[in-house]
C-alpha cells in the first residue's frame, strides 16, 4: 500500500508523503512518512514552536528556577497554566512566569538593558531563588539581542546566581522539536560538569525525558528509592537546576522520552562514556522490563524482581479487571510523537486495545521507524496531522477513544467520541504500574460514558442512533 | 485617604494579566461566521491561543498559522501568507473571511501584508470566480498594546475591509459589547428584544457555547456574518459598551458613514446597566419595559440580602480587562464592597485619564490604588506584607494561585476562567449579571468561612 | 537455523526493543554489535563481559532479550552453542539492513546529534 492521499488533501498533495497506512508484509524500508519537515501554511496543524519546546516542555519544569522570557508578553502568558507538572516544593514552576515585556522602543533600540533590569528585578523580588533560564523569542532573536552577554554580566555582579541562556526563537526549526534540541545541546555544552553532585549510593543514574506529568517522576522515584539507586538528575521532572549540572557523574542514563531528551543522553555517552538505556515507562510489561534492565546493569537483579513482584501483587488484578472490559476497544493516539510508540503495544498487550490511527506533531523519522515496527497493520501513521485529516481518518477508523490534547478533545466530543488527555493526562500519573492502572481506568470511564451514548439520540425519534440502540 | 493612580515601576513582568495583541485579534476573528483567522507568525502564536480559548470555553476554535520558519525570517514571509490563504480557501469551500493577523516576528521582518493580500485577491478571483472571500489585514505586533488593543484592532480592520460603502438604512442598532462571554451576548440580545430594538451584536459569540447534537454537526463559531458587517454602515446608531474594546469601530462608522456613535460606561452593576438602557431608550425612543424593571428589582432584592450584612467594608482587589475592572469597581461600591486595588494590565496611557477612574477618585473615602501597566506580582507582593489585608479577589483564573496561597476567597470573572465550570455561559453584564456575580462572591466567601471556621455559624440561620 | 526462526527473532526485536532505533547509524551499529555479541555469549552458555559501562549496558539489553527468546521460542533451547553465532549473525544482518543500510530515515548520518 503506498502512502495515502486523503480526499481533504487533494489541494495539498504533498501531504501524501506524511500519511501511511500499514499493510501486512510491509515495513519501514518500504515506506516511512516524511517528518520533522515544514508545515504547509494554513492547514490547521497542531504544532507549536521551538520556544515552547524549550521553555514549556523542558526548562519550565524545574522547581527552583526563574524562567525569564525575553520578548513580548504573549510568549510568557501562553506558556503558563498550560501544563500539569507539579513539584514537591509547592509547584513554584507552575505558579510563575517572567517576561521582559518588550515594547516597540526596545525593538528599535535593542532590549539588552531591559533584559538586564528584568533579571535583576526578578532575583530581587524572589531573593530565595538563585537560578534562572533566559530564553530568546522571535523578535529578540531577529533584532540580535546578545542574551549571553547580559547573563554573563549579571553573573559577574551577582556571584551567587547562575543563569542558563537558551536561544530558541519560535520560528526556529519546524516545531517544538527544535527547542528540545537547542536546550539539550546548550545545557550539555554550558552547564553539565559545572557542579559536582554528592554521591550517596553505589548505583547512580540520570532519569531523562520524563517531566513529572501529574506526578510520574515522583511515582517512579519510589521505585528507585526501593532499589537503592540514586537518581543524580531528573531531566527534568521535579528537577533542580544544580542537579542537572551534575549529570556527568551518573553511571547510567535511562531515557524515557527519546525525542525531547535523547540528545543529551547521546552527548553524555559521547563525552563522558555514560551508557544510554532506552525504556518505556508506560505499561506493565514495559515497566517491568525497564526495571529488570536497570537492575541487570547494576547487578542488583534480586532487588528488581522483589519490587516487580510487589507491584504486580498490588496492581495486576486491577489492571486485568480493566483489560477484560477494554478488549477490542479502538483507540487513536494524536500526541507529540514518542507516546505513539510508547503506547501502541503497551495498550494492546496490557489492555487488549487496538490502536487504529496515530498522528505525531513533532516526531522525527526515528519515531516513525519505532512506531511502524510496533504498530499494527491497518493502522494509519500520520505526521503533523491537521484538522480536516482528523475528520477523515475518524470516518475511516471509527475510534472508540482518542488520546490527544484538550482542544482536539473538545472537537471530537461533538462527534460523540470521548478523549483522554494524552499530554497532561486526565487523572494520572500514568507511568509505572499504578500509573497504567490509572490510564486503564480513565480509558474505561471514557469509553463507558453514558452521556456520549445519550448524545446520539434524537429525542424526536428520527436519528439512526435510536434504532441502533434498540437493535443492541 | 483617597485614590492613588500609579504604574508598575519594574521593567519586567512576573505573571501577566493579559496576553499579547495577536491573541486578542484571534478572539475577535473567531467571532465571525465562515471565517478562519490566519496568524502570520510562528506556530506557537496560534497553537497556544487556540488552547487558551479551549480552556476557557471548553470548545475548539479554528485558527490557522502561516507556520513561519527561518527562511521567512531571512527572505520574508510573503509566500507563506499567500500559500496559507490559498490552502484555506481551497480546503474550506464555505470560507468568506480570512483575517491575516500579524505578530511580532512578521512586523519586525516587515512583511508587506497589504501587497500579499492584493496577490491573494487576484488568485482567488482567478481560481474561484464565483466566490467572494475577504482577506483582512490586521496589524497586531505583540510588542505594542495587549490582547485588549488586539481585539479592538481586529474588529476595526474587519469592518474597514468589509463595510466599504454606505448601506441602505437597516433599522438596526450596532452594539459593540467588547470582549465578553456568550452569557453576556445572550443577555444583551434579550434586553434588546425586550426593548423591541433590532440590534446587531459585534461580535456575536453566543454559539461559543455550542451543543453536542445527534447528527454530530459542529456549530462552534461566531454568528456575525459578512452581511451583518456590510449592513452596519446603514444602522441608525452604534452603541459601544467598552471604551477600549470596540468603541473605535463605532467611531469608524461615524466618521466614514455618519452612523451616530454612543459610548456608555460598561454595564457592570445596577447603575451602569440603568445608564445603558436609558441610552438605548434615548437613541431609539423606545420605552424601557416592565420586564426589565422587574429584573432590576430582583437583582436589587438579591444583592440587598448580601450588601451590608456580608459585603460592607470588605476589601477587594480586582484585575482583568480595563473596562471590566473599572465597571466591577463601580459595582463593588454599589454593594458596599471596598475596592482597594485595581490592576490594569498594559501600557495604555489613557487609563489614567479615563473619566470613570477620575470619578472614582472623587468618590472613594478610603485608600485605593489603581496600578496601570500592572502584573499579578503587584497583587502578590502586597499580600506578602502581613499588614496588608484583603478579603476578596475578583479576577480571572491566571490569578488563582495568589488566592489559593494567601487563602483569600476569589470569585472568577473575566477571561480566562478555566478553573471554574460554565462561567462563560453566565452574564456578568446587566442586572442579572450583577446579581449572579454578587451571589458568586457571597458563595465564595461562605465556602471560605466554612473551610477556615471563620464565624461559619452565622450561616446557621441566614 | 531456518529463515522462519530468524524472522521470529527479528520480529521480536522490532516489536520490543528500542536500541536498534538510536538516533544515528553509528549508535545503531554499536548497539546491534554489542547486544548481539552479548546475546551470542548468553545463548552459547559463555559468561558475557560485564566490566565496562558499555559491556554492562549490552548485557542488560541482551539478558532480557535472550530471556524472552527462550520463553517465546522454545526451539531456541535446541540451538547448539556453535550455531548461536550463525543465528545471531543472521539476526544482525537483518537488523543492520532494516535499521541502517536500507533505512529511509534521513537523519541517520548527520554528523552531530
Automatic annotation (TrEMBL), chain A:
SUPFAM superfamilies: Helical backbone' metal receptor
Catalytic activity line of the entry: N2 + 8 reduced [2Fe-2S]-[ferredoxin] + 16 ATP + 16 H2O = H2 + 8 oxidized [2Fe-2S]-[ferredoxin] + 2 NH4(+) + 16 ADP + 16 phosphate + 6 H(+)
Keywords: ATP-binding, Iron, Iron-sulfur, Metal-binding, Nitrogen fixation, Nucleotide-binding, Oxidoreductase
Cofactor: [8Fe-7S] cluster
GO molecular function: nitrogenase activity
Keyword Iron assigned: yes
EC number: 1.18.6.1
InterPro entries according to UniProt: Nase/OxRdtase_comp1 (IPR000510), Nase_asu (IPR005974), Nase_comp1_asu (IPR010143), Nase_comp1_CS (IPR000318), Nase_V-Fe_asu (IPR010142)
Start and end residues of each Nitrogenase/oxidoreductase component domain: 49-447
Pfam families attached to this UniProt entry: Oxidored_nitro
Stated family: Belongs to the NifD/NifK/NifE/NifN family.
Quaternary structure and interacting proteins, as annotated: Hexamer of two alpha, two beta, and two delta chains.
This protein's name: Nitrogenase protein alpha chain
Lineage start: Bacteria, Pseudomonadati, Pseudomonadota, Alphaproteobacteria, Hyphomicrobiales
UniProtKB/TrEMBL annotation, chain B:
UniProt keyword Oxidoreductase present: yes
Parts of the chain that traverse the membrane: none
Domain Nitrogenase/oxidoreductase component: 20-445
PANTHER family: LIGHT-INDEPENDENT PROTOCHLOROPHYLLIDE REDUCTASE SUBUNIT B
Pfam families attached to this UniProt entry: Oxidored_nitro
Record family assignment: Belongs to the NifD/NifK/NifE/NifN family.
Taxonomic lineage of the native organism: Bacteria, Pseudomonadati, Pseudomonadota, Alphaproteobacteria, Hyphomicrobiales
Protein name: Nitrogenase molybdenum-iron protein beta chain
Database matches in NCBIfam families: vnfK_nitrog
SUPFAM superfamilies: Helical backbone' metal receptor
Keywords of the record: Nitrogen fixation, Oxidoreductase
E.C. number(s) listed in UniProt: 1.18.6.1
Molecular function GO terms recorded: nitrogenase activity
InterPro entries: ChlB/BchB/BchZ (IPR050152), Nase/OxRdtase_comp1 (IPR000510), Nase_comp1_CS (IPR000318), Nase_VnfK (IPR014281)
TrEMBL record, chain C:
Cofactor: iron-sulfur cluster
GO molecular function: nitrogenase activity
Catalytic activity: N2 + 8 reduced [2Fe-2S]-[ferredoxin] + 16 ATP + 16 H2O = H2 + 8 oxidized [2Fe-2S]-[ferredoxin] + 2 NH4(+) + 16 ADP + 16 phosphate + 6 H(+)
UniProtKB keywords: ATP-binding, Iron, Iron-sulfur, Metal-binding, Nitrogen fixation, Nucleotide-binding, Oxidoreductase
The protein's enzyme class: oxidoreductase
Lineage: superkingdom: Bacteria
EC number: 1.18.6.1
The keyword Acyltransferase is annotated on this UniProt entry: no
Physiological role: The key enzymatic reactions in nitrogen fixation are catalyzed by the nitrogenase complex, which has 2 components: the iron protein (component 2) and a component 1 which is either a molybdenum-iron protein, a vanadium-iron, or an iron-iron protein.
Self-association and partners: Hexamer of two alpha, two beta, and two delta chains.
Name of this protein: nitrogenase
Native source organism of the sequence: Xanthobacter agilis
Amino acid at each position: 500500500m503506498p502512502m495515502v492521499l486523503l480526499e481533504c488533501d487533494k489541494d495539498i498533495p504533498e501531504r501524501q508523503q506524511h500519511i501511511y497506512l500499514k499493510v501486512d508484509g510491509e515495513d519501514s524500508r518500504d515506506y516511512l512518512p516524511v517528518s520533522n519537515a515544514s508545515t504547509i501554511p494554513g492547514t490547521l496543524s497542531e504544532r507549536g514552536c521551538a520556544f515552547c519546546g524549550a521553555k514549556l516542555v523542558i526548562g519550565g519544569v524545574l522547581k527552583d528556577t526563574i524562567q525569564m522570557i525575553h520578548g513580548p508578553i504573549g510568549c510568557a502568558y501562553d506558556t503558563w497554566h498550560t501544563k500539569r507538572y507539579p513539584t514537591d516544593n509547592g509547584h513554584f514552576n507552575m505558579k510563575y512566569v517572567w517576561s521582559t515585556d518588550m515594547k516597540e522602543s526596545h525593538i528599535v533600540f535593542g532590549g539588552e538593558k531591559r533584559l538586564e533590569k528584568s533579571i535583576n528585578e526578578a532575583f530581587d523580588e524572589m531573593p530565595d531563588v538563585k537560578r534562572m533560564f533566559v530564553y530568546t523569542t522571535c523578535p529578540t532573536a531577529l533584532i540580535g539581542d546578545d542574551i549571553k552577554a547580559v547573563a554573563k554580566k549579571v553573573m559577574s555582579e551577582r556571584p551567587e546566581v547562575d543563569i542558563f541562556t537558551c536561544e530558541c526563537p519560535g520560528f526556529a526549526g519546524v516545531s517544538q522539536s527544535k527547542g528540545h534540541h537547542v536546550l539539550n545541546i546548550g545545557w550539555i555544552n554550558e552547564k553539565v560538569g559545572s557542579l559536582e553532585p554528592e554521591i550517596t549510593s553505589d548505583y547512580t543514574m540520570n532519569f531523562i525525558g520524563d517531566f513529572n506529568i501529574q506526578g510520574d517522576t515522583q511515582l517512579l522515584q519510589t521505585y528507585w528509592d526501593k532499589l537503592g539507586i540514586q537518581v543524580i538528575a531528573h531531566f527534568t521532572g521535579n528537577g533542580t537546576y544544580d542537579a542537572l549540572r551534575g549529570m556527568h557523574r551518573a553511571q547510567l542514563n535511562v531515557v524515557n522520552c527519546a525525542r525531547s531528551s535523547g540528545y543529551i543522553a547521546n552527548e553524555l555517552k559521547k563525552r563522558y562514556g555514560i551508557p544510554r538505556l532506552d525504556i518505556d515507562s508506560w505499561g506493565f510489561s514495559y515497566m517491568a522490563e525497564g526495571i529488570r534492565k536497570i537492575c541487570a546493569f547494576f547487578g542488583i537483579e534480586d532487588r528488581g524482581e522483589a519490587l516487580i513482584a510487589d507491584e504486580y501483587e498490588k496492581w495486576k488484578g486491577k489492571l486485568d479487571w480493566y483489560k477484560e472490559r477494554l478488549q477490542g476497544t479502538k483507540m487513536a493516539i494524536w500526541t507529540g510523537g514518542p507516546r505513539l510508540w510508547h503506547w501502541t503495544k503497551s495498550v494492546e498487550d496490557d489492555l487488549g486495545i487496538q490502536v487504529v490511527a496515530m498522528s505525531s506533531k513533532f516526531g522525527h523519522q526515528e519515531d516513525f521507524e519505532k512506531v511502524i515496527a510496533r504498530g499494527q497493520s491497518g493502522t494509519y501513521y500520520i505526521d503533523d496531522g491537521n484538522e480536516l485529516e482528523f475528520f477523515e481518518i475518524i470516518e475511516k477508523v471509527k475510534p472508540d477513544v482518542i488520546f490527544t490534547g484538550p482542544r482536539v478533545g473538545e472537537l471530537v466530543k461533538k462527534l460523540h467520541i470521548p478523549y483522554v488527555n494524552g499530554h497532561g493526562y486526565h487523572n494520572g500519573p500514568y507511568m509505572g504500574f499504578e500509573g497504567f492502572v490509572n490510564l486503564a481506568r480513565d480509558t474505561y470511564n471514557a469509553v463507558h460514558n453514558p452521556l456520549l451514548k445519550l448524545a446520539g439520540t434524537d429525542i424526536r425519534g428520527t436519528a439512526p442512533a435510536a434504532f441502533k440502540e434498540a437493535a443492541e | 485617604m483617597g485614590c492613588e493612580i500609579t504604574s508598575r515601576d519594574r521593567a519586567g513582568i512576573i505573571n501577566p494579566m493579559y496576553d499579547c495583541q495577536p491573541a486578542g485579534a484571534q478572539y475577535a476573528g473567531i467571532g465571525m461566521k465562515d471565517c478562519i483567522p490566519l496568524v502570520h507568525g510562528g506556530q506557537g502564536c496560534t497553537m497556544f491561543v487556540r488552547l487558551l480559548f479551549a480552556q476557557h470555553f471548553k470548545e475548539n476554535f479554528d485558527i490557522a498559522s502561516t507556520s513561519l520558519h527561518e527562511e521567512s525570517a531571512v527572505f520574508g514571509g510573503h509566500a507563506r501568507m499567500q500559500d496559507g490563504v490559498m490552502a484555506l480557501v481551497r480546503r474550506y469551500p464555505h470560507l468568506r473571511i480570512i483575517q491575516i493577523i500579524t505578530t511580532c516576528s512578521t512586523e519586525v521582518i516587515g512583511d508587506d501584508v497589504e501587497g500579499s493580500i492584493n496577490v491573494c485577491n487576484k488568485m482567488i478571483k482567478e481560481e474561484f470566480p464565483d466566490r467572494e472571500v475577504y482577506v483582512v489585514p490586521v496589524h497586531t505586533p505583540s510588542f505594542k498594546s495587549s490582547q485588549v488593543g488586539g481585539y479592538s484592532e481586529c474588529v476595526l480592520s474587519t469592518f474597514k475591509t468589509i463595510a466599504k460603502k454606505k448601506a441602505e438604512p437597516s433599522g438596526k442598532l450596532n452594539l459593540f459589547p467588547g470582549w465578553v462571554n456568550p452569557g453576556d451576548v445572550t443577555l444583551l440580545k434579550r434586553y434588546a428584544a425586550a426593548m423591541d430594538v433590532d440590534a446587531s451584536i459585534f461580535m456575536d459569540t453566543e454559539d461559543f457555547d455550542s451543543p453536542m447534537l445527534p447528527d454530530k454537526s459542529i456549530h462552534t463559531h461566531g454568528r456575525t456574518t459578512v452581511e451583518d458587517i456590510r449592513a452596519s454602515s446603514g444602522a441608525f446608531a452604534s452603541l459601544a459598551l467598552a471604551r477600549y474594546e470596540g468603541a473605535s469601530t463605532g467611531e469608524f462608522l461615524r466618521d466614514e458613514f455618519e452612523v451616530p456613535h454612543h459610548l456608555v460606561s460598561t454595564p457592570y452593576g445596577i447603575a451602569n446597566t440603568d445608564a445603558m438602557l436609558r441610552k438605548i431608550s434615548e437613541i431609539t425612543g423606545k420605552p424601557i419595559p416592565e420586564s426589565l424593571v422587574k429584573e432590576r428589582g430582583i437583582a436589587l432584592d438579591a444583592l440587598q440580602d448580601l450588601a451590608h450584612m456580608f459585603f460592607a467594608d470588605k476589601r477587594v482587589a480586582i484585575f482583568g480587562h480595563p473596562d471590566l475592572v473599572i465597571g466591577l469597581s463601580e459595582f463593588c461600591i454599589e454593594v458596599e464592597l471596598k475596592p482597594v486595588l485595581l490592576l490594569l494590565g498594559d501600557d495604555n496611557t489613557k487609563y489614567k485619564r479615563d473619566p470613570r477612574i477620575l470619578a472614582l477618585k472623587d468618590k472613594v473615602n478610603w485608600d485605593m490604588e489603581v496600578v496601570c501597566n500592572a502584573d499579578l506580582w503587584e497583587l502578590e507582593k502586597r499580600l506578602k506584607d502581613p499588614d496588608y489585608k484583603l478579603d476578596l479577589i475578583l479576577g480571572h483564573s491566571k490569578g488563582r494561585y495568589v488566592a489559593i496561597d494567601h487563602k483569600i476567597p476569589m470569585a472568577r470573572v473575566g477571561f480566562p476562567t478555566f478553573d471554574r465550570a460554565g462561567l462563560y455561559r453566565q452574564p456578568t453584564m446587566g442586572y442579572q449579571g450583577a446579581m449572579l456575580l454578587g451571589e458568586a462572591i457571597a458563595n465564595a466567601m461562605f465556602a471560605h468561612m466554612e473551610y477556615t471556621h471563620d464565624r461559619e455559624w452565622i450561616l446557621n440561620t441566614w | 537455523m531456518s529463515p522462519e526462526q530468524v524472522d521470529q527473532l527479528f520480529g521480536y526485536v522490532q516489536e520490543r526493543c528500542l536500541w536498534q532505533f538510536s538516533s544515528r547509524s553509528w549508535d545503531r551499529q554499536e548497539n546491534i554489535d554489542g547486544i548481539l555479541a552479548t546475546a551470542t555469549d548468553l545463548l552459547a552458555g559463555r559468561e558475557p563481559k560485564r566490566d565496562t559501562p558499555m559491556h554492562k549496558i549490552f548485557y542488560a539489553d541482551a539478558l532480557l532479550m535472550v530471556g524472552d527468546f527462550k520463553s517465546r521460542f522454545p526451539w531456541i533451547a535446541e540451538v547448539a552453542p556453535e550455531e548461536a553465532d550463525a543465528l545471531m549473525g543472521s539476526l544482525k544482518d537483518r537488523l543492520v539492513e532494516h535499521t541502517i543500510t536500507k533505512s529511509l530515515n534521513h537523519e541517520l548520518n548527520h554528523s552531530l546529534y
